[in-house]
Amino acid sequence: MKNLRIKLSLFLNYFVFAILLNSVGTVILQVQNNFGVSEAAASTLEAFKDLSIAITSFLIASYVVRIGYKRAMLFALGFITLVALAMPSLPSFWAAKLLFAATGISFALIKVSVFATIGLVTDDEKEHVSFMNFLESFFMVGVLSGYFIFSAFVDDSDPQSTAWFRVYYLLAAVSLLAFLLLLSTRLDESRVQQEEKKTLAEEFGGMLKLALRPLVLIFIASVFLYVLIEQGLMSWLPSFNSRVFKLPTSLSIQMTSILALSLAAGRFAGGLVLKKLHWFKVLSFCIVAAAILMLISLSIAGNEVKHVVTGWSNAPLAAYLVPLIGICLAPIYPAINSVILSKLPVQQHAPMSGLIVVFSALGGTTGSIITGNLFGLYAGREQIAFYLLLIPVGIILFVLYFFKRETDKIPFEGGNH
Predict the structure, then answer these.
(1) Of 361, 365, 363, which is closest to residue 54 (Cα–Cα)?
(2) pLDDT band at 349 (very low <50, low <70, confident <90, very high)
């Protein structure tokens, strides 16, 4: 396969940060158990992660070509390896905040570089959208793995135990492996490096001008809404499982893996279906199906659990149904990202990737904080917080119609053309 080694490196880079980024739901549950942190305070972990992603992306996305995609990714992997190694010595809520801030800074460099690199290693629009879906599917495999990795370090018999911080030794080892693979892999960046050099102010101004295009503004709204929905679910599903279904802590974390598995399966299937059907038809069906499944699963979740749950075998049916919403939501994010990137010249992929990362991060923070505060407001009736996510689900369908109308006017410009 062409560019196999660099593609494998991109997959592993994404895998590392999938585990770290999406551990926020697990850590939210654990800091409440360990340190007596309130729902509103715990939800700020998402802000430390996402705001650091947004700020870093906004400041460096237009400059990452000058830094070099490979060099930026190596710095991110090296930095997060050192931070993860320090975590077991600092078991505290403030250390968790610093970890997610460091993770956010590193992931901003990784995601901008990875998205921009896709345009260098794919040849046409179909390959671009297929690789993007496969990459995002593998990201969800990392998320899925993370739930089992973290739950293995949780002590159900001692909710106050901070032994789970030792998981970061393992994660440091994985990120070091990713660093070494990338270091030994060649990436040809000459096509973008040979472009006319601009000053930092000119490059930054170019990104701002790009953000003001009507097509990009509509896309930004789509990304923001999608990530708000997904992160609201993912960050608070462990707590939802614990409070609504009365699951033990480790099982609450493990069963959240169903959402990650659903997202991975949905994105893999989406990559196949999107080769044959127009993306808007596929995404419209997915959004309507997601809304219907949310209504059904949450209505079942409202029934009180009257038995003691001890494992997967006697967990309530709704604990399996709620996370299946991910199958329907899954294809939306990679599809719209691929559509916007494939409509832009390869030289604009880095600044556009920066905008994707910025508004994904802002959407994630907004979704987690809103959901966290609703959990506190509707204590004992937490399913209401998830019901209210149906509002952005409805709005995103409306926004994607206008996104389709704008993108239909523009031919494919990405890839190697």
Answers:
(1) 361
(2) confident
